[in-house]
Write a structure and sequence with these properties.
It is a single chain. This protein has 74 residues and is mainly α. The protein has one domain (3-73). The chain is built from two helices and two strands, in the order ααββ. The protein has a two-stranded antiparallel ribbon. β1 (66-68) and β2 form a beta hairpin. The longest helix is centred in the N-terminal third of the chain and has 19 residues, at 3-21.
Length: 74
């Protein structure tokens, strides 16, 4: 697979994770969707996957933003 194809695949995965699924706090529905997406992509690539749960402590975000090419993510 050439570099351009890999670059486009990476961009596509990031677009899905960052805009379609969005924020992925630990334990959230979005986090579970992102995990399922990663598992699907890896399985399609021939990898065997296994996901295990873990207990997490509730937390509150103090807020953070990321801006890339004029698009902001909180």
């Amino acid at each position: 697979m050439n570099k351009n194809v890999l670059t486009e695949k990476a961009k596509s995965h990031l677009e899905i994770l960052c805009t379609e699924i969005g924020e992925r706090r630990v334990g959230s529905e979005e986090n579970r969707r992102a995990t399922a997406y990663a598992k699907k992509v890896l399985k399609e690539a021939g990898w065997q996957t296994e996901a295990t749960g873990l207990p997490v402590i509730d937390w509150k975000t103090g807020g953070a933003t990321l801006t890339c090419h004029g698009k902001s993510f909180e």
